[in-house]
Amino acid sequence: MAGTPCPEFDWRIDIDALVFLHEASACRGFVHRLAFRSLTGQTSPTPQDCMDWFGQHHPAFLLAADRKLRRGRPAGDAFSLNSRDIRRALEAF
User: Fold this and answer.
1) Angle at alpha carbon of residue 21, lines to 55 and 88, rounded to 5°
2) 2 in a domain, yes or no?
3) Per-residue pLDDT tens digits of the chain, which is 93 residues long
4) Does some domain include residue 4?
5) How buried is 40 (Cβ within 10 angstroms: 0-12 exposed, 13-18 middle, 19+ buried)?
6) Quick one: CA torsion of 26, 88, 11, 1, rounded to 10 degrees?
7) Domain assignment present for 1
8) pTM score, two decimals?
9) 3 assigned to some structural domain
10) Phi-psi label, residue 70: left if phi above 0, alpha if psi -120 to 50, beta otherwise
11) Which conformational region is residue 60 in: left (phi greater than 0), alpha (psi within -120 to 50 degrees), or beta?
């Protein structure tokens, strides 16, 4: 994986999405491959492409997760991030 090592994350083949642990809340975050298609500009990013992009932009994913969870997601719940959530967080960096 490229980028700084991140807390636990993996690719879920069954749902075609990256799943990661948001340690501050103990929630699991999901990002579908279609979001990565928009973010990376690739027509069909591979799971490895998506995981590499996640590794390179990990702080933005954490910020997007923080913002989403502040809107009322209970700890221990699962949530999904879309490309818009992540793009907004990228603007902070």
Assistant:
1) 60
2) no
3) 344 444 589 999 999 999 999 988 888 999 999 999 999 999 999 999 999 999 999 999 999 999 999 998 765 688 999 999 999 999 999
4) no
5) middle
6) -100
7) no
8) 0.87
9) no
10) alpha
11) alpha
